[in-house]
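Interim report, section 4.2 (structural modelling).
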Amino acid sequence: MHGIKRTKLSKEDEDRKKQEDAEQIARYRTMVDECLKRKDNKDYSEEAFALTNSILDFNPEFYTIWNYRRMIMLEGLFPNATSEERYSRLTSDLRLTTSYLKIHPKVYWIWTHRKWCLEHVPSGPGRTSLPARTVSVEDSKHLEDITGSLTEGKEDPAGQNGSRESTINAEQTQRNGTPANDEENDVEGWKKEAWARELMLVEKMLEADSRNCESLPWPFPNSSYFSVGLVHAWDYRRYVLSSLPKTFQPAKTPQTEVRYTTKKIESNFSNFSAWHQRTKELSKIWDSMRSQPEDGPQNVEAEIQRMRQKEFELVAQALWTDPGDQSGWLYHRWLVGNGDDVATLRREIAQIKELLEAEPDSKCKPMQSIVRSDPMHTLIVSIVFVNLGPLESLVHYTQLSMRTASLSDSEMSKARQNMRQWLKDLERIDPFRKERYRELGVFPFTHDRSSISRLSG
Amino acid sequence: MTQLFKQKHVEYVQNLNSQISQDSYEYWLLEHLRLNGIYWGVVALATMDNLKALPENEVFDFVLSCWDSRSGGFGAFPRHDGHILSTLSAIQVLLIYNRLDDPKVVDKKPAIVKFIKELQLENGSFQGDRFGEVDTRFIYTAISALSILGELTEEMSRPAVDFILLCQNFDGGFGMVPGAESHAAQVFTCLATLAITGQLDRIKPEKTAAWLSDRQVEGGGLNGRPEKLPDLCYSWWVMSSLSILGKAHWVDFTGLISFILKCQDPNGGISDRADNETDVYHTCFALAGLSLIEMSQKLKEFGLVPIDPVYCMPTSVTRKFTNYTQQ
Ligand SMILES: [Zn+2]
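Predicted structure of the assembly:
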């Protein structure tokens, strides 16, 4: 099992466990049997609904029971219910998933049900009949519970907890402070309310994330990849954002998302998830600028180039702060792209060389250990050589420049010579991947046949 | 540890379904994984060339008892709802035991195929069941199952491949839906789908392979994403992906083998990391991963059966139906 320590029971403990298990098994199997019988008989009653609850209490991974629960709602409980009743039933099922997630934050099927509930919130006049303020206070408590269980066993000073709560309350007040008459007949009222809560939840998940200085493997599969799937906080955030009702305020646009990633990146440069998200949002912005060039295609390209150069400035901060960090280099690789912008490519190559020369002595020394811990282990994930990222990027960009920058003969010969040296250095400081570096010397990434002969010449 | 405790692992798999196991409460709480568990157990045994360690007829009867006549797919346990994941497990187990042509299976085939086909959505992706979500692993599961059954058509695979390509990221990896971060297990499902459909030439293999080889970390183990802890099951997800790309040697075998062997329980079974609780899932993927290493090294250190990196079954089995372009 993922992350569960191997134990050996004593003979007595084993016997006691066997006795207890026998009773539990009998109780559990009787319940499951009755529930599946009702399911076969298409029993969509209130009692059947309650029975699914009791089974899920024991086993929230029982996907068939979750399916049955949804069928009971769709076929039995919803058809004759008012939309108020449906909303209230879904809200209480959201609470149910919250209480399960508190204990089993990684179980995929609970998340599936949670998403299903959110997606089935009916159209309705939200705040006029069910005051958001009341709901939100109660829900804040639930959110605290979930994120609390996330950070269990980790430092969480009381002061920080308090300040988090007040931020949430402030946000909530702000949201409730929009003009009342907009809300009176808002058909998307309930939906907005439900998704606003969800957005708050996921932002708290990401806050917990940065406090622990790693992107949480959350909620990651616990029994097996193929059975429980894979979600984590950023994935869930993307899901929530893509599900927001059209009139949701404050509106979430690629621009607001870029700002969000800036905030995350500035608080922690090695947040790969945030860099990844930034590539997605900037691509969206640039694509839409290109598809509707307001003041001519040339001006649009100039504006995109200006924005791109700003990105180089941002990532340079990360790279100079910690050249051993992979996240920044991956982003840098994306910014450089295929190297058609020769001027930028040459400039970046020069800067990386400068970065390497800044600390020549560190070339072959491990400069930074990345240590990760789970409840059971403290493991060193990797000992990163501070020059690994810069060297590897130099190799890659030099290969690009051999293809795009129409180098002079002397530049080409210098590049070849450098490449051989850098690849040799890479083999030495990163022996796990030595075969890859050896092949790089023979078959450059670019697939450019002419550069193969140049390099080996 | 420098030795593979093969006999102990065979016994471990044999005991999973024994009375002793059935007396434990946990056994029943894992009902929803039973058929998947049988598949992992059967592949583990097949990799150790010891398929006869399980009673074939009992396994066959159990698999058929998981068929859900309402949906047409297989559930994970008798009377459970059909799901794409357990359906693939059922088909794989039946194939490994060479029982797909049994009249009792042939009867059900049209319903099984219909179940899978109806899970495909307009955008080319597949959902796991009627309530299910979209995820590249369901695409792989569906495409793999249909290709084993000889029912994969161009009409289904073309949009599925287009969707897969939308899930590729700038780092060369693949995510679970468009926009999601790269993850090694997702890379496997996407590459294997491209391999089955003969579309591997639509990506740049070196970029993906470089990302995959970066998964090897201190201690020799592999992780699923940058800066995460190593976990034994990535010995399968990463090594199968690299093998599909013909770049298995881009990681260090000595380090990886040592990591895998340390995850063994000398009493049988293999866990995600040294000294953790063992389970059949990690036991299966450890052995299958070791087999891929052996194949790449052209060594027979552990005497394992060659495994097909695309289907996670012995190549002797997948040869029977393989119609995709081999690398
Ligand atoms: Zn694992």
